[in-house]
């Protein structure tokens, strides 16, 4: 994800206000032009750093010399894989977010807590049953067994395989999530509306990313359970975020305050249209992978396509938006491939088979290396 800054939302006000007029004139949902599938990262909200943090995220610092001969330093979740053989488990809170659209901008609601999917599970329960949290998939890449574990843990083990191949106890896991009470946003017609899904079937809601993040900040500040030592994940269903009138954002992550005691958090959409952008847990796999390798959105790298170490962006434009199918519990989930450290100019020998990505679907280092 390229680093993004808060934008003036006047432009999106005008675009969405015009769309709300169209709803009054037409019974059907509109199409949106120039829709682009994308993810974002919001800048670290340093001014919102916890004043008296009671805990910190388990994290480690590393470095490498990239191909431009620059020293790159980074902070990642977990412990140093070159020095430890332990399991890190980060507690997780899931916050379902229901978005309601009125008569002027869609007259419908998108509710991840109540929506029941084809397998009989709600969106939230299906996320919890997925390989993001369920350690039920044996991830074997290129004939090498990385372990039967959660997806992001398998990715991180593959990322540092030269160190952890003989360390069976090294893991970076997400804890069994606690689902907090659902939050509801009534979307103003000047900030969002309902459209035909530009990437699949059915309809989706739109909502401005900065307005959404304002709600996120308010909720986190009021919830004593959310401390820097845990990861809050906000889930929306069949909703894409917008920025400056541009659509469509499947998720983002950010932090309030710098390492080591900043509060990290993530946002992802679950879209249930088969083959669509952000299908099932693909957006969540993207965001949790990037949270793991760049939790405080400050790991600066020398890439022309990516100025911070965001491991999902280089793959998101691939077929199926970089997703690969994995069946677990009778449901086929789509997990987005993620790039290894070698993509950013680190020695590729660090990763499994010296690959540049988890699915061996990246053949070149980043532009600028």
Report on the architecture of this protein.
The chain has 369 residues and is an alpha/beta fold. The protein contains 6 helices and 19 strands. Strands 1, 5, 6, 10, 11, 12, 13, 14, 15, 16 and 17 form an 11-stranded mixed sheet that branches. Helix 3 packs across helix 6. It starts with 9 loop residues before the first helix and ends in a 33-residue tail after the last strand.
Task: Compose a concise summary of this entry.
With 369 residues, this protein is an alpha/beta fold. 17% of the residues lie in helices and 30% in strands.
Structural descriptors:
369 residues; alpha/beta; 19 strands
Helical region count?
6
> Can you give the mean pLDDT?
93
The parts where pLDDT drops under 50 for at least 5 residues are 1-27
Total domain units: 1
End-to-end CA span: 17 Å
Order of helices and strands: HEEEEEEHEEHHEEEEEHEEEEHEE
Quick one: biggest sheet? 11 strands, mixed
Rg is 20 Å
Provide the helix percentage.
10-25%
- Which structural class should the secondary elements be placed in? alpha/beta
How many β-strand runs?
19
Outline: globular
Query: What percentage of amino acids are in beta strands?
Result: 25-35%
């Amino acid at each position: 994800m390229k680093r993004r800054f808060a934008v003036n939302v006047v432009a999106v006000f005008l675009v969405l206000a015009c769309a709300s007029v169209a709803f009054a004139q037409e019974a059907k949902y509109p199409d949106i032009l120039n829709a682009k599938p994308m993810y974002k990262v919001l800048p670290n909200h340093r001014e919102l750093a916890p004043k008296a943090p009671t805990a910190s995220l388990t994290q480690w610092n590393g470095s490498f010399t990239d191909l431009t001969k620059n020293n790159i330093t980074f902070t990642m979740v977990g412990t140093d894989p070159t020095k430890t053989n332990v399991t890190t488990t980060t507690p997780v809170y899931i916050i379902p977010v229901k978005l309601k659209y009125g008569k002027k901008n869609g007259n419908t609601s998108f509710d991840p807590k109540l929506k029941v999917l084809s397998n009989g599970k709600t969106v939230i329960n299906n996320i919890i049953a997925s390989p993001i949290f369920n350690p039920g998939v044996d991830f074997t890449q290129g004939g090498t067994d990385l372990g039967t574990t959660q997806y992001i843990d398998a990715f991180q083990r593959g990322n540092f395989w030269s160190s952890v191949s003989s360390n069976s106890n090294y893991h970076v896991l997400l804890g069994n999530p606690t689902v907090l009470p659902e939050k509801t946003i009534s979307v103003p017609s000047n900030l969002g509306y309902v459209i035909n899904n530009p990437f699949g079937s059915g309809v989706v809601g739109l909502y401005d990313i900065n307005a959404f993040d304002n709600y996120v900040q308010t909720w986190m500040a009021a919830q004593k359970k959310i401390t820097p030592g845990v990861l809050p994940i906000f889930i929306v269903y069949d909703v894409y975020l917008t920025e400056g009138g541009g659509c469509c954002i499947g998720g983002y992550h950010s932090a309030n305050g710098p390492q080591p005691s900043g509060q990290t958090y993530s946002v992802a959409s679950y879209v249930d249209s088969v083959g669509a952008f952000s299908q099932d847990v693909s957006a969540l796999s993207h965001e949790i992978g990037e949270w793991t390798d760049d939790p405080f959105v400050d790991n600066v790298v020398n890439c022309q396509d990516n100025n911070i170490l965001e491991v999902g962006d280089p793959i998101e434009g691939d077929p199926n938006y970089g997703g690969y199918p994995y069946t677990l519990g009778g449901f086929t989930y789509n997990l987005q491939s993620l790039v290894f450290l070698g993509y950013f100019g680190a020695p590729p020998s660090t990763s499994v088979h010296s690959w540049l990505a988890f699915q061996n679907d990246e053949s070149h280092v980043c532009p600028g290396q």
